[in-house]
Write a structure and sequence with these properties.
There is one protein chain. The protein is mainly α. It has a domain of 95 residues. 55% of the residues lie in helices and 4% in strands. Strands 1-2 form a two-stranded antiparallel sheet. Helix 1 runs antiparallel to helix 2. It is elongated, with a radius of gyration of 41 Å.
Length: 184
């Protein structure tokens, strides 16, 4: 079988089983010359069955491999936070003691390299350009910004209060004309 044949494992397995069945049914004692080599039906069946067995073994190992990987991920999820806490604890406890941390397979935190004046200037220029592009402003600048609305008349709402100390709800008649003006 050539490697240029592109078929899924299930399709290839079904094809091998069909070829084996067909050979045993129609030519049980046949002789074939394939690629210059002589084959009997029994030899072909054995050869095709070996591929079918290999496909079945691969499928089974892939299924068990998925189960093993899922189990490993479950253990990683349980152990991961404990590992990170232990690592942090060891780094805090032993600090810059490289020989002691090396016994644990850890390295101390690296100090950041000092930035040059050019790097600082480039960083400041980039931050300023980003702020301008986003239109972000400071708190004081935001207070000076106000919107202008035109074409709308705003009528203040006034309520009549009763002289009594108790607050009473104001009731309006259902067909009372509105006091506000609207522009349409």
């Amino acid at each position: 079988m050539s490697t240029s044949m592109k078929a899924s494992k299930a399709t290839l397995l079904a094809l091998m089983q069909a070829l084996i069945s067909g050979l045993q049914k129609h030519t049980p004692n046949g002789q074939f010359t394939l690629g210059g080599n002589p084959y009997t039906t029994a030899a072909l069946v054995q050869l095709l069955q070996s591929l079918a067995d290999a496909i079945t073994a691969v499928t089974a190992s892939q299924a068990s491999g998925k189960e093993v990987v899922a189990a490993m991920r479950a253990v990683e999820a349980k152990v991961g936070p404990v590992f990170l806490a232990l690592k942090s604890n060891l780094l805090n406890t032993y600090g810059a003691s490289t020989s002691t941390l090396a016994d644990f397979g850890l390295e101390p935190h690296k100090a950041p390299a000092p930035r040059t004046a050019e790097q600082k200037a480039a960083s400041a220029a980039k931050a300023k350009a980003t702020r301008a592009a986003r239109g972000t402003t400071s708190k004081k600048q935001k207070l000076t910004v106000s919107g202008n609305v035109s074409g709308i008349t705003v009528t203040p709402v006034t309520t009549v209060t009763a002289p009594s100390p108790a607050v009473q709800p104001v009731a309006t008649a259902p067909n009372a004309p509105s006091t506000g003006t609207s522009t349409k």
